[in-house]
Amino acid sequence: MSSPGTEKPVIEAVSQTFDSLMREDRVFPPPPEFAAKAYIGSAEAYERMYAESIADPNAFWAKAAGELEWFEPWTSVLEGSGADATWFAGGKLNLSHNCVDRHARGARKDKVALLWEGELCGEDGRPKEIRKLTYGQLHEEVQRFANVLKAQGVKKGDRVAIYMGLGPELAIALLSCARIGAIHSVIFGGFAAHAISDRVNDSDCQIILTQDISYRRGGEVKLKQIVDEAMAKCPNVRRVIVYQRAPHAASGISMTPGRDVWWHQEMAKVSGFCPAEPMDSEDPLYILYTSGTTGKPKGLVHTTGGYSVQTYLTSKYIFDLKEEDVYWCTADIGWVTGHSYVVYGPLQNGATVLMYEGAPNYPANDRFWQIVDDHKVSIFYTAPTAIRAFIKWGDDWVKKHDLSSLRLLGTVGEPINPEAWMWYHREIGKERCPIVDTWWQTETGSILIAPIPGAVSTKPGSATKPFFGVAPQIVTKEGEPVPAGQGGLLVISKPWPSIARTIWGDHERYVQTYFSEVKGHDGKGIYFTGDGARRDADGCFWLMGRVDDVINVSGHRLGTMEIESALVAHGKVAEAAVVGRPDELKGQAIAAFVTLEEGNEPTEELRQELRKWVAKEIGALARPDDLRFTQMLPKTRSGKIMRRLLRELATTGEVKGDTTTLEDFGVLAKLRENDE
Ligand code: ATP
Ligand code: MG
Q1: Acetyl-coenzyme A synthetase N-terminal domain spans which residues (predicted)?
Q2: What residues contact residue 238 under an 8 Å CB cut-off, 6+ apart?
Q3: How crowded is residue 214: how many other Cβ atoms within 10 Å of its Cβ?
Q4: Which residue among 312, 330, 359 closes a domain?
Q5: At 532, which CATH number?
Q6: Residue 218, annotated ligand binder?
Q7: Average pLDDT, stretch 84-102?
Q8: Residue 419 located in a structural domain
Q9: Does 512 lie in the same domain as 567?
Q10: For atom 13 of ligand 1, which residue has the closest CA?
Q11: With CB atoms 3.0 to 4.6 Å apart as the test, which of 438, 442, 630, 634 could cross-link to 290 if both were Cys?
């Protein structure tokens, strides 16, 4: 018998197409009042622009790049292909300049760039801390902190690790590194010490930016203490710069003389003038590790020019960003979504970006809706895991607030179950806001598949159509196109500007992982996403789950998404994860893990009802063989279900795979207990 799933070679899993059982035919055209004001307001306009962008990508991307400021023009748009593509060669620019200086110098000087709300609340349950930084003020802060980095000896090309909570200083840290050409490596401010030391050593960071504490769900997270613990294993770190977040000296925080300095004290020593360093288009901008959903995280390297252009353009068109919008992406800056769609994309567009430090359920389950109401948020971008939590908590929390400022909703991170999409549409969007389901990856740098909201009709559970210049295809392992309606491997056949150029220190692994699994007719590798998908007759893409997670039942190969969505469509189910476990008769049996909406009991009767429900909804083939109720599912820190751990558990009763990005270790222990 083969060993449990985690280290399963992708090759085996991808050699065939897979079956689709789901029937979802609801369609929502763009609301006419939205389309009337949108940048791209009709299906024809989208189709025309898309066709042009594919026919002549160089002309398309050159025009987009022309909307940014360059210190020196590029000499060619795209050179090379596959793992060797370069974009805007010869061009010089600076992303911090395009995010900040460009606006601070002009009409947006006094416009709010960052609108931050801290988690702390007063006796009355109202937020205690709100900060607003205009583009002018952000310009000043970024220049000053860039000078602090310089004074500490940080030079172009040096790596700087950042381990902070979600606040303006985190954005300032990123923008300051970019300004002087230092390569930042953000480590999510919830990881344990060993995750920090692994990442710091992998990319040889000699400087760490952190803060004393951050606030989470009413408690303190002692970030500095965790950094101290990590430093025991990081001999090359020579400086730790500590931002003081707590209003008073936080308890248990100590400074190591000769190594640690306070952010505010260093800021007071330097000038507020620091011109942006002209960076080559292909100079590295940052390193970022993937979420670790399918294995050990990979440290991807993004470069400057192509990344700037594509995060700028996708933010503009997919979020239809306008001057008066208040834009809120709830992602942490520790993930790529935070890099591209909290900081770099929206700021290049001169937007007002809302940041909230804390948890969605502190002090109560309606904190997000309170924030939308208080700050008149118009664009709201979150993850399916959050949406499923809101559903679980019940609609009353939402109904307490006025959400009429919202005009566009977004989702990212996992396939969204159609019934969760419908809830989002109904309860949050009040059937008035288009929903952009955005498919992309840490590797892709920016969104590749998503509806242009004024132009493309949406369908619950589908990320719909490719962004301009992007050419997704559904193919077999041999690179043969798979017919519409049938599931296969999602590949991207043309280069796009914001693709990560390598894995830090391991280009061979980069080529192996992304450009070797699937080959085109010319024998060259095509970018393989690791995801399974199908395309429907209208040309819309439906993500079906990770190729690693495909379940093989009696010769039928099923994606996880459709079975999970059938379970979630049942009124009592909040969340579901399905995995395959070995079965002598069927090859694999389906094991489902289910969490219930509040107020429901996990009875044997309900277990049988749910198994029957799946059979009725999408077919007997998909009926789960085992169905376990659980309080929680194992997830990554970015909120994705870690099926590989469940698969191991369902197969061997043990977990040996990489768990460094697991959100809550208690979940595995609980699941094991239930086993007994
Ligand atoms: P690792 O690569 O370490 O396994 P990861 O793939 O979860 O982790 P990310 O780069 O954060 O790391 O996530 C990208 C993946 O998230 C995609 O490959 C896809 O599986 C999933 N994903 C993101 N957005 C969507 C979406 N809108 N619909 C479906 N799946 C999505
Ligand atoms: Mg991945």
Answers
A1: 46-99
A2: 206, 207, 259
A3: 25
A4: 359
A5: 2.30.38.10
A6: yes
A7: 98
A8: no
A9: no
A10: 441
A11: 442
